[in-house]
Known about the structure:
By secondary structure, the protein is of the alpha+beta class.
Amino acid sequence: MKTYKSINLEKVFNKTMVNKRIHDGIVYMEDTTGEFSWNKGYGGKELDSPMLMASITKLLTTACILILQEQGKLSLRNKISEFLDQEHLSGLHIYKSKEYSFDLLLSDLLFQISGLPDKFEEKKSSTKRKVINQDFSFSIHELLHWAKELKPHFIPRTNGKAYYSDLNFDLLGEIIEKVNGTTLAEAYQQLIFIPLGLKNTYLPQSENDFIPHIYYKDKVLNRPMFICSCRASGGAVTTAREMMIFIKAFFGGKLFNKIIFDELANYNKLQITMGPISYGGGYMRITLGGLLMPFMKKGELLGHSGSTGSFAFYYPQKDIFFVGDVNQFANPSLPIRLSIKLALGV
């Protein structure tokens, strides 16, 4: 039976939770077999407490795309114009006076190598700034309109270039609906939640669905309209217990043949604001070691974090999965730093 020093994990957890910006949190760790299992909550948050997945939702979207590819319903080499309205795509990606909108592939979206901008973070009028002050909804057509007002960052598939943009996954969500012939919520249910027996994980459809609040510094934000609009890029709700089931299935081959990871493990460094994160085919990679962590043997965390403090990572070198939430919208680096410290702790 595998054993780890839980006292190290306790220290990491307690030191993180004393941050004055953290009001509640949960960490849950297990190995593949479940022989090793450790969890701890703070501020009343427990294994079955609802939590926003935020950008971990992108792993749900990735899983659906890979499942549909296995079913022969699409290919990562398909152009997105085969599935999306050409009128809406027109003018989306114009770089140095040349249009690339109709050259975009599904893989460009999945690997974050489309060059498309991100309205959520860019400019002073970013949606992130706006959502701190008010709740609002938006449609995919509004997202496309906003993106057309911004400049793409590079030609799609430029060697070594990647740029994190929620729009890439919002477009993948539209493609899933088109190919599967269902809503995105129904696709998640059919392709992921039912096969894995997840009963407390869902994509909210309206303000009547329960949506957990989030914190921005000390301010409580209730943003049901915004969360319902995020959909494929960041709209799902789950619990730590069920997120563990999902992340194990994602990397363990229970949803799709994990041999696909040979193809997905083509990583590019993201923009500088994303810190040490590289992006592969639908998931993040954080390399452990190098100048930032000179005492750490080389390894990597694979998975995703969310802007509201959520995280779900696999540490292959130790066969450990980390999931949890620190519920803080003001500092998206918190879950990354915590995940790295937990890796050091085991």
